Amino acid sequence: MIIRHANERGYADHGWLKSRHTFSFADYVDPNHMGFRKLRVINEDRVQGGQGFGTHPHRDMEILSYVLEGEMAHRDSMGNGAVMRPGDVQRMSAGTGVLHSEFNNTPDRELHFLQIWIEPKERGIDPDYEQKAFPAEQRQGQWRLVVSQEGRDGSVSVNQDVNLYAGLFDAGERAPTPAVRHAWLHVVRGEAGINGQRFSAGDAAAFEPGETIEAVGVEDAELLLFDLA
Predict the structure, then answer these.
(1) Residue 142: predicted pLDDT
(2) Is the pTM of this model over 0.90?
(3) What residue stretches are annotated with the Pirin N-terminal domain (predicted)?
């Protein structure tokens, strides 16, 4: 288990946007943290009310959004428009090229979300978009598959051999960990015990195939578990 502590992440303060970078991103470059397998970006973003990312391009990247608090308004050049709320997972396959914008949909409340980039399995595909809701009851005390290559079990599909599980664990609550290969476990919020060590929001750990992963809630833990080839 290799631990990536929350306070070791990159940080950017743009006034309207405060962002923590688990891996190298924009002006934050750390040769020791360029990504993990095909997982390239995990940015924890906090956006002021009424502010956001204006229309900008992407190409050949699988982009996932996971909202923690507030509402995020999405618009793109494919004609999609939606509002994301906590429990929603959105996937945008940039493919040959797409324009999109993301804004805090409320003027007086902070938007808190994770922006996740995964390198695609196939490049040059047609741009695509998908969004699904995973209510808290589907994630409470269990690992819910929310993203997979085939979109199985009602998950969001993605153009890569990746499985993403989300779980909510109260104090003392645990569930059998899904079978994983290379794994990245990210504490989204709250506190959890991972293999006997205490993890707080923003902490993460990498695991090689065959390593034991035991997670238990300590205080309102929300966890994401990436299974990567």
Answers:
(1) 98
(2) yes
(3) 9-118
